[in-house]
Design brief:
- 8 copies of one chain form a homooctamer.
- Chain A contains 8 helices and 9 strands.
- Chain A has 216 residues and is of the alpha/beta class.
- In chain A, the strands form 2 sheets. In chain A, strands 6-5-7-8-9 form a 5-stranded parallel beta sheet. In chain A, strands 1-2-4-3 form a 4-stranded mixed beta sheet.
- In chain A, a hairpin with a 4-residue loop joins strand 3 (58-62) and strand 4.
- The longest helix of chain A has 19 residues, at 197-215.
- Bound molecules: adenosine monophosphate (4 copies) and magnesium ion (8 copies).
- One adenosine monophosphate sits between chains F (7-10, 36-37, 99, 196, 198-199) and B (90-92).
């Protein structure tokens, strides 16, 4: 791990066997494997290989986020006294939001997921204001026009990291408008690239680390 | 006038004398001159020429919007039983928002201006919900990330026309992010080009015309 | 429904089973399901599920538009005294134009479809002028250079919503040139994003609602 | 001259004295100077220098097109039995349209200018159909959405060269939408770059040359 | 046919049965079917259908260009006394170059194909100068940086139409750099969109028509 | 102040008198004025006005950053036990880096400025590693290719906010490449828009607030 | 060979049989075949054909780089007294980096491959400085933000050619940010297009040729 | 100097006094000042300051390239046995081409300037082939479509560095098309950014250094 950020295995363009080998090596050398953007076949390959070679490893799959985490026996995550809140609007945000949650947790932070919050129904946003304010740092995922982090950053004192999501079709679709809107936000926030849930979660994790250390 | 939309004289790149001549001709041939994007010098030139050649014409200047309207004696605008609401956030929206108001008025609509409304202070938006709902059609101007029309369109039944404004610097600044966000909006609206206040006001005017006629 | 606009289920990236479940839930909770961008397999899945669980629901498929609408027994659409005209040039406009028609109808508007109208054969446009003028609001779909809404908006008093369609290859193909041309139109119109037939129809529906209410 | 296309002196970024020197040399070596994009000061400098050094040269200025043409005594243009039609919508097309006319004339073609033709008033286009059909080749200038060449190419058998003009503000303004629309045109035409009136006129001139030669 | 340009059936996104039906109808109503961008399956479908329903029709396939042309018995193309030259560099230009040749031929022009000419081996270009000069109008296809039409237009008096081809990978690949280079060409030419071989051939055909008529 | 972030007066496009009025009002209503992107004339206007109306106010100008801060008598900034480090490479980073420093200080953070650090001389970066690690949060400004935040984020555990600066000419110049590189960074960081020093400093200030609160 | 650069057969979009035929012809006519971007099936086709028709040819496959090189009996590469260093960060650089190595070798240069060097772990870069300095010319591959060539060019006197690699997702992904960063580099280097390993290796080979000749 | 590349003072956005101070310091500390993009006023300021403080320094101005070089008494450039050829087409290439020449000379290389060479007149290119082949490395400047380096690289064995120049208006003007064309070149070359004459000259200088050293 660098900066407490776990190394991750990004499955894009790898065959199941390669992923399984990389994950097994990671478990053996670092005590942990964090596998992202994995399809069913890749997940099964990792599960099968670990079942055979490390039957006692703890394997968790975050289904809709296409993530698998394996911990070797005896591996224990760092502990961190700080909470990362991860806000998402709908099912199309599931993968990047799930990546952010998983990375923050693996860095030792507590996480709080706030679902089904979108600018189209402001009431839901206002209902969650207390939960939003209770987090130490927020990752706010949003697709299409990406207005949600702007709106939330106007309601809380918490640092907000905008996470643009690649939905939406047509001109500036696939997260482009969302990213640009976060860069132009009239409320204070910083942003990561489109679908960069791992990056957003890791940045939130670093901020949580700093806050957690300060509490000690 | 085409479709009830007044012809306008767009001052960009014209010398004061040309503008004055065009405005005078317009007053003489159509009873009205609508001069947009006029700087002080151009406005003075029109005023001076009209004072000399049509001293009895009624001349109104919408200062911060850089617009001048002149009516010949005896000219009367159409009358329309419908209201166009024009929402803006700050001083940088003044020119396009003012163009929208002026054109809608010249088409005969009543207008309601709602100022200082921005997503950075949601409370102000919520305070104005009743006024927003009372309009027959809304033009919502917004710069930077352009989230305002998206938020408002989630709160009203009224048709909303998004008007992106060319403020904001950096990547996708000068209204680009605002336009793209309106095209990707997760609430229902249609959009016009950046700073196209004239276009937004005219489209709102056409809708108001249709509503007004329906009332008859 | 928000603003009278029906919730729709966008099939992109969903497996048939998911779509069927979502549609069934929609029928049960709102009395209606509106399924868009559905391929044959997804349509069959919805049909099968509803046949089993709600055999008395009324199911309509708009074939070339890839849309399915289901109404529970006893569900009745709003009624609206206003007509939305939807203009299209050719077969490549079928999906977005069909989405616009369906949404407007589900909002209660009457619809008038005007097919095979393109700038390449102006005579056809001129032949339809009376029909175009009779509508209360027009959605005009166009691909490639997207000139059709500009031309039509010069011939009618009706509000026009430009709907760019993703055909055309090469530089600025897939609807981009069409969208940009509508934003730069020298006649008055507002626009929605590329292929955003649902958005265009809903915006037309909101305008029709306002006109219909005015008539009461 | 290459291919019968006269060399031109493009004034952008040159000081008046440089332009005057280049023009004088051109008159001396080729019998002709063709000076484009010249402001008043540059035109005066050329006039003054030629008045002094070649008082008998014939100097013509095409005012609104910012072009100066000088012919030495005894210089005579080629003669060509073919007509180039140049269509424009408004004053903002004056410079590129004027460049096209001048180059075509200097190549020996007859020219026919058709002004005030725009898609916003189709009637004007239809009124001119006979004139348009009489030309051997057409250059059609258009700004904003640039629909005019597409419309005209649907009405004539004549080859059409689209000439996009840099007016229009906002997204894809300054001729970009016009260019892209011409490249995506659903009627047959070829295009030149934005404001490339010289290029359009020269290409039309080459076609006129080929037609003129065929007549011999 | 409009302007002598044959209607074409563009196969993109059509199933073989649809193409076969459209082609058969075209043969029946216009005496000719011109089918472009056809894959093997689509070509077989058309062949089979025509063999059954119009066994005496003349069917020609231009293999590497993915084009099929069918003429009903008794159909005869127009005759035109002018030659369209079509220049291409390599196999990746085959489809658009072949489209240009076919359309020009169907419009009645003679065609001259000049293959394996590229800027990487200037000697080949220089070897072909006489052939290039003999054509009445040239279509020059080029991919990657698209320099070939610029170079050729500096060597001939013939009008040149640049046809950018979608090869080349990386930044500005897939024909974009080629198109932009043709628009910025320092020699005189006009351009069509990327891969728009049909458009280039039709524009060349219109010019050939004008030249052919002039010869009469 | 919202979220402890001071309101700022952005001078772009305002005349000196307007700026002076806004600053005076700010001092009167909030006890503080923060004036950014001010040229000499605007700074003089504010100084003069305050000297006259609030002679006892404390006025500080951050010369190379074009910033003026005025505190009314009795105004005191919040106090925060956390340090914001601001890294810059050269003189072209002075304005955005200075904005970041000023805002962070006005929010109560301690600041540490690290100058003349660039990827062209890695030794300087390595020399400063201890100072970089001592900060609680880092803002790293960089122009041209913008590699500096990526390099620094590989050397520290501290959260890094990338601040792209608008220098560099040619393709992707003016900060665009720097922004894109920060979004694509292979080390963990979040980014703000080009030249958005105010935004970067405010985001760093919010993180410092959270850390400072944790220490209490 | 042109300039000593071997002709290559680019497999993209070719069927295995075509590739095999082209490779066999190349072996027969030039003594060598260099096949790039070949998938397993294409490689097997070439191997099988050569095994049958030129069983004594020497065939080498550079597995992860998707390259096959075949030399006829008696073919001998040029010999060159100069070394091309090729630097890469990870597995996603394998194809372009391998292309660069292969081409340089086929031009006769010695090559030195330096793997697993990335800006995220500067220590590795610093460890390799001597090896980097020993090369006569360097090709440095990098994806994502593409900072590696900038960093290396600050540490050596050797000429550096930046080779952007198409990894990275989101805005400016797929090598775009890497390319732009190399063009904006604040240290001295020149660049080739994204994934253009063949081009980078050939340019390095030409420089090595010049250096090798100078040594003679 | 880093890598033998002289530090340069880029005048953009600096006032004359600042430039003069920076140049004087450079002369005092490194024995040399290299001032680029200097306007007349800035050049006069440097001249005046040096005349006063270092009257014996050798000051050379490269007029059309806006460059000033000053050498302190006793300063002597490195000596290098290699020639950099710099090719340019016209006056608009003067600044970047002049920068390339100056930097290469200051690094000790011999330089050979080849002017008035453009793809519009191939004969001139062919006339210079021997001179082009005699250089050890070539910098080829080109604006508009930027085809010149592609053409030259097909005629010589010498390494070619493409230098795009910011002329040309319209879509992809100001050097963009030229840059993209060099990146897509079908002959072997590497490129630098638009107008980056300093970068091109320095890269050529580094290659010349390597060649010069090899000769020793
Ligand atoms: N502020 C404005 N925004 C957009 N269009 C305008 C504006 N003002 C005037 N126009 C329109 O621009 C056209 C005037 O263009 P011109 O012929 O160049 O004077 C008319 O059709 C006006 O209706
Ligand atoms: N290869 C082609 N490139 C461009 N346009 C084509 C091509 N083939 C056919 N067309 C045109 O595309 C139109 C067919 O579009 P569609 O109505 O979608 O079948 C007709 O106007 C044809 O003339
Ligand atoms: N340098 C700056 N960069 C970005 N935003 C700023 C800057 N200075 C002030 N602002 C913000 O811009 C807004 C001022 O906009 P305005 O209402 O046009 O004066 C305020 O919300 C400020 O907090
Ligand atoms: N990997 C590669 N990247 C770039 N160019 C290549 C590559 N492989 C081969 N080429 C070049 O691409 C051309 C082959 O194009 P084609 O005529 O389509 O086969 C030849 O000039 C090769 O030298
Ligand atoms: Mg959203
Ligand atoms: Mg706003
Ligand atoms: Mg159309
Ligand atoms: Mg027009
Ligand atoms: Mg080529
Ligand atoms: Mg830097
Ligand atoms: Mg990298
Ligand atoms: Mg050139």
């Amino acid at each position: 791990t660098r900066r407490g950020v776990p190394e991750a295995i990004l499955c894009d363009g790898k065959i199941p066997g390669e992923v399984a080998t990389l994950a097994t090596t990671a478990v053996e050398t670092t005590g942990r494997a964090l596998v992202t953007r994995a399809d069913d076949e890749q997940i099964q390959a990792v599960r099968a290989r670990l079942a055979k070679e490390h039957p006692d490893a703890n394997v968790q799959v975050r289904e809709r986020a296409n993530i698998l985490v394996a911990h070797a026996v005896g591996f224990s995550k760092p502990e961190l006294d700080a909470t990362v809140g991860v806000v998402s609007a709908g099912t199309s945000d599931a993968i990047p939001a799930g990546e952010a949650v998983t990375v923050a947790e693996e860095m030792g932070a507590s996480t709080e997921e706030i679902h089904d919050v979108g600018v189209a129904s402001l009431v839901r946003v206002l209902d969650e204001v207390e939960t939003l304010r209770d987090a130490d740092v927020l990752v706010v995922a949003a697709g299409r026009e990406g207005a949600l982090p702007t709106v939330i950053a106007g309601l809380v004192d918490t640092p907000v990291i905008g996470l643009p999501v690649s939905n939406g079709y047509g001109h500036a679709g696939q997260g482009k408008s969302a990213l640009l809107g976060m860069l132009q936000s009239c409320t204070v926030l910083s942003a990561v690239n489109i679908d960069a849930g791992f990056m957003a979660g890791a940045q939130a994790g670093l901020i949580a680390q700093a806050i957690g250390s300060a509490k000690e």
